[in-house]
Description:
Keywords: Carbohydrate metabolism, Glycosidase, Hydrolase. The chain has helices spanning 29-33, 51-57, 60-66, 89-100, 130-142, 147-160, 208-225, 229-232, 234-248, 278-294, 299-323, 327-334, 358-363, 386-394, 400-412, 414-417, 432-439, 460-469, 473-484, 513-527; strands at 8-9, 23-25, 102-105, 108-112, 128-129, 165-166, 169-170, 179-185, 190-196, 324-326, 369-371, 374-376, 379-381, 384-385, 426-427, 496-497, 503-504.
Amino acid sequence: xxxxxxxxVCQNASVKNFEAAGSIFEIDxxxxxxxxxxxxxxxxxxRSFDERSFSENSFRIIDHLENxxxxxxxxxxxTPRSCGFESHPMVVDAWESLRRTLVYFRSQxxxxxxxxxxxVEELNYDQVFVRDFVPSALAFLMNGEHEVVxxxxxxxxxxxxxxxxxxxxxxxxxxxxxxxxxxxHPDRNIETLMADFGESAxxxxxxxxxxFWWIILLRAYTKSTGDSSLAEMPECQRGMRLILxxxxxxxxxxxxxxxxxxxxxxxxxxxxxxxxPIEIQALFFMALRCALILLKQDDxxxxxxxxxxxRLHALSxxxxxxxxxxxxxxxxxxxxxxxxxxxxxxxxxxxxxxSLPDWVFDFMPTRGGYFxxxxxxxxxxxxxxxxxxCVAILSSLATPEQASAIMDLIESRWEELVGEMPLKICYPxxxxxxxxxxxxxxxxxxxxxxxxxxxWPVLLWLLTAACIKTGRPQIARRAIELAESRxxxxxWPEYYDGKLGLYVGKQARKFQTWSxxxxxxxxxxxEDPSHLGMISLEEDKxxxxxxxxxxxxxx
Length: 555
């Protein structure tokens, strides 16, 4: 693909050369005008909640958090931007490591690179990834540092507006980049941004999750700062509508879920998540709910508000009924009849009971449940995926009862899902013939490694947020203590290998930014749980009646 040659002059820049193919975009003066800082807002930081109050109030905590105004608040860590809290050496180390990953464009911070490991080839780990930046952004927001998040949102929005081509095919206007990199041209003393929309990715798959994370982060920024002026900009409103238009377009679908290719999200390699993966559906649901809050009720916005509301109702019904698995539902599937043709069919997807994997009967506790990995015609992927289930709790896609059941499952299957290093990205691992056929003999995704059952410290922040929301902070505290025993000593690896997560991953990068940021966000949320409000949504009472299946978790 031919790069776009528009460029702007920039002074005092120092960035390494980047040789991969991609699209080069300018940041023009009009766009820089949008980067002006919002007015500062100061609010006194709220004290930590007592653990007993979590147990007593459980989901009621979100109603309280939604009413807090966390603008301008900083956590009490002893960092260059905050003080007054007894500093933890690992926290200090984490902040120093995180700040070293900051990327600057025209002397302004615009994000953090994926990893700062100089011992191995950089590949694309020296780029700013949209999904990877989210925990970094939350850490900065919780510490009262809003500028880098605002700049990131605006830069990625500007990149979205450019024409996107993969070979001879033009991508949809709403597609957000997977990543971008600042290029410095010393001969002309200019800087440019190079974006990757999937044309350089493994398998050449566009990132479905990037647009969802962008909307979620825009809402987090608005909630944290108390400033809605960024979200109300015509440019941001248009960006949201473009993303939503991609997802809400009519087609041949008979389900409200989004059909996706393998490798379109955090699991960006072939791992059998094609179809309707839980990670995408949960992020889709959360992004729709955030958009409903952020969209203006003007002529253009009102149309999308109505479409979003309609889709949310259908999506919540579908996910809560057909993706949910507990002991009762597992037994029902075990007894399914097949080849049912009428509207009264119980086995609506014609799933063969003999396709139930042996491991799921031992894995399912008497009390507990989870959203399975995928549901499509004649196929159910019963694997546990951490990110999708945690986002389901935070977005209130999971009902309060389902959210409690997910936490029951984590507690019951602690050794399998947490082990010695939080947190399994999925469970169980694919092995032998299944690994060969599903992954295509991927040497990076061997059993209990990387995306195939590896342990990812970044997931700690999602688990912590889910624990706080469900009134189980002691689970998060236990997981954080496990991470603190090794994470800094091991130089912040990207992931760990092995059934228990005992070994630093065989190809794991050190000083992985989202491992660092995920730890900081988890610590800050436990210290000041009111931070949860920027990344969590309370239950929509209008959707509660949609769940009809009996649920064993209430027994």
